[in-house]
Amino acid sequence: MPRQDTPTTPFEAERTGGSGLGWDAIIVAGGRARRLGGIDKTALVWRGRSLLDGVLAATTGARRTCVVGSDAVFPADVLRAVEQPRWGGPAAAMVAGLEALARDSGGTGSEGTGSAGTGSAGTGSAGTGSAGTGSTDTGFAEWIVVLAGDLVHADDAVPYLLAELDRLLTAPQTDAAQTDAVAHRAIDGLISVDTGGRRQPLLAVYRRAALTSSALQRRADNLSVMGLIDPLDLVELGLPDALADDVDTPADAARLGIVLPNTG
Questions:
Q1: Strand arrangement, sheet containing 23-28
Q2: Out of 68, 82, 217, 248, which residue is the most buried by the measure of CB atoms under 10 Å away?
Q3: Where does the record place the MobA-like NTP transferase domain (predicted)?
Q4: pLDDT per residue over 18-37, tens digit each?
């Protein structure tokens, strides 16, 4: 059974961006948005900026950010990638993001994901790495924050996730609230869970080596996101539904006050 962590409310968590954590970000911004008439939903405007711009703003504490599957214009220091095959789904997008981050870091060996089906960032294998809160010995950020490009409250959700991961990794073993403290230090990440008990793999933070290792063992062109993360030892973090808000349907847009373009 997955381990669960239920801290205080997210707005009581210190918004530090994850003190002591070295992290990169992958934003999954592709997808056909069929229920919205095939529009680019990451371009929808909420409170004066596009959803994608809001998610990008939430990654300002990252060492590097890669946006996968978007044709939008964004800052030059943001990496760009396209999932293979195009429209291949969020798992393929996560693999493409891992590869782009590895290339940008000069990685050609164990941190690449070449055997996962896209073949552009390395051919070696990856282990699960050691527990810790900083970067790996190779200079790669140890943690990867993965976000959907249409999240509405990413600026609140990301600091919350990172602060909770930092707390789990650094809590004293004598802490009464950490009965599994040693095991928590070996976790592969933290995944948000909505009030209905559904895992949100595009609102999560993963240990880079563990996610890469899983990708190396599977082909990205025929892979579900749950299949990609299933081997990982993830702690589930309950979130209020508001922090996981995204825009999948016209009803979602109406509830959030987002105006949809006329696709007729």
A1: 3-5, 234-238, 189-193, 199-207, 143-148, 23-28, 65-68, 79-81
A2: 68
A3: 25-214
A4: 457 899 999 999 877 778 87
